[in-house]
Design goal:
Blueprint lengths: L1 H24 L4 H22 L18 H27 L8 E6 L5 H13 L3 E7 L4 E6 L7 H19 L1
Antiparallel strand pairs: 1-3, 2-3
Helix pairs in contact: 1-2, 3-5, 4-5
Length: 175
């Protein structure tokens, strides 16, 4: 059964990459599809082992394998882009104020993510959101240290709540 999962992993990764290739390029001509297939095969060839550990490491020596939920990605990515849009508007409104009375700060956020890859993915998603930057990731204690642009309007609890909401969505997507 474990070997079956290992053979499905590169195929699933290739299919996901090729789907994103078609969505992002919007081209269905032969040259575009052939280029997409070639690039997706190369990326799959070089990266799929990052997401799936070798069979001899599976019995408990490593964290559980990530399982990408394609159906949940149809919900996750639009919600994530909406969050980025809202944060962009908030940061733009802050910069347009004549008196920038900001109170930046760093907040420690505890997470319940089991896999270090998903924790790093969460850190990257937080950093992609305008107004926040992940400055450190504690893989041992499953914590993020998030710098917020303005803790005056978004207090420490709100930062933790926003990150935890994103964490729950990410857990549904990959764990």
């Amino acid at each position: 059964m474990g070997d079956l999962k290992l053979t499905k992993a590169p195929i699933a990764l290739f299919c996901a990459l090729f789907l994103f290739w078609i969505l992002f390029t919007g081209k269905l001509d032969v040259a575009g599809l052939v280029l997409g297939i070639i690039l997706c095969v190369l990326v799959t060839w070089f990266t799929w082992r990052i997401f799936v550990p070798p069979a001899h490491e599976l019995p408990g020596q490593v964290a559980p394998v990530l399982h990408f939920n394609l159906a949940w990605s149809l919900v996750f990515f639009p919600l994530f882009f909406w969050e980025i849009f809202k944060a962009t508007v908030q940061v733009a409104m802050l910069t347009l104020k004549p008196d920038l009375n900001l109170m930046p700060g760093i907040v420690r956020v505890k997470t319940n993510l089991k896999h270090k890859t998903s924790l790093v993915m969460l850190a990257n998603h937080v950093t992609l959101t305008p107004g926040t930057v992940t400055v450190d990731v504690d893989l041992v204690h499953h914590e993020l240290y998030v710098h917020s642009l303005n803790l005056r309007t978004l207090d420490e609890c709100a930062v933790c709540a926003d990150v935890n909401k994103l964490e729950e969505r990410l857990r549904r997507l990959v764990e």
